[in-house]
Amino acid sequence: MDIKELQKIMQENGVVGAGGAGFPTYMKLTDKADTILMNCAECEPLLKLHRQLLEKHAYEIMKTFDMVAETVGALQAIIGIKKSYVQTINALNQHIEEFPRVKIHLLDEVYPMGDEVVLIYEATGRVVRPGGLPIEQGVAVFNVETLYNVYRAVEEHKPVTCKYVSVVAEVENPVTVKVPLGCTLEEVVAQAGGTTVKDPVYFVGGPMMGRIGNGSDPVTKTTNAILVLPKDHVIVMKKQRTSSIDLKRAASICCHCHTCTDLCPRHNLGHPIDPAMFMMAASNQDFRNVNPYINSAFCSSCGVCEMYACPQSLAPRTLLADMKGGLRKAGIRPPQGVQPKPVQESREYRKVPEERLMARLGLTKYDKDAPLQEELVNVSKVKVLLSQHIGAPAQAIVNVGDMVTEGQMIAQPAQGLSVGIHATISGKVTEVTDRHVVIARN
Hints:
By secondary structure, the protein is an alpha/beta fold. It has 16 helices and 19 strands. The chain is globular. The two termini are 40 Å apart. The mean pLDDT is 95. The strands form 5 sheets. Strands 9-8-10-6-7-12 form a 6-stranded mixed sheet. The protein has 4 domains: 3-156, Rossmann fold (3-Layer(aba) Sandwich), CATH 3.40.50.11540; 161-233 and 367-378, Ubiquitin-like (UB roll), CATH 3.10.20; 241-361, no CATH class; 380-441, CATH 2.40.50. Strand 16 and strand 17 (421-422) form a beta hairpin. Keywords: 4Fe-4S, Electron transport, Iron, Iron-sulfur, Metal-binding, Repeat, Transport. GO terms for molecular function: 4 iron, 4 sulfur cluster binding; electron transfer activity; metal ion binding.
């Protein structure tokens, strides 16, 4: 098929990036990509989903990956996978000869290997410029689950109605389950046999870049994992601190050791992000040089500075995110056309070993198998958000009282960057707003 035909299938079936921010996948299809990458690096500690899904559906995902490469005219298709994922690599090798265009690139067990910019450099040697898009370097990156959703849309004519989610840490039986979009986090956690601590905290996403969620929050297309943690866990405590106090702590105890910058993955790739300079300027309210503030726009919020590097347990990532958000609200755009400096020669010695990262964050005891279960979890009600992706929210096309079937489009793509949203269970529409649609089984 041609690019426009595949784009239409992806948009109408609601396919978005399942591993990150939910960027509509159809917009990544372009004949400017000479290389496409499959991201199977999990990025964060404790996440098991992508390696399991790729192992179980290796042929289907590789076939789809090769089809996307052929559609856009890419010269090479590279699967970036951590070398420790031995079972998944074995599954890939069983089919690799059928796809001459596809190659496997083994990655080290370091964080944040799953970061798009880091992965592109590791697999191709190309550096995406600060604030730039991968396609500027002729590269398009696709997540494992995203490609599986493309397979289901193209081969099985099924839209995105469900999500694979790993439930780990303080639960009876860590597990990776398949759930309807719009079910609650509590319903997902229940599949792991219940929690093992009093007053558990649901940490949605990975331990480095995740957020604290409520049990009633709905699962979306970007919900990859739920970490059930005790309320006094170091990760939870860090998330609950306030920025005003973080800034005062920085002013009083930052020793200007520069470790946050030394270990910053983007800084080591030549990007002009310098957490140490920012902390010095912000904590002293020094505005003579505005570059440390303006360059906060290039922070990826990976959390290495805050969760691993800083010996004083300060919060550079949080303060940088606040600054970045403040600049955006003020209408100040990131500097345009910034070119990266040469990659730091010391970069190879400043990678963060994932095993050491887990130990430092008190997560080693939670590093257990979370077996993948393919049977769809049955729920009685779903709250399907109309904005589960970057871009304009989908526009509801159903009304209260309508009967819908699983897979039926309930919100069409809006003008501009948008994708369709579908019913994730069969039942009756009980609520429609500009933000969500609620469906209850009869």
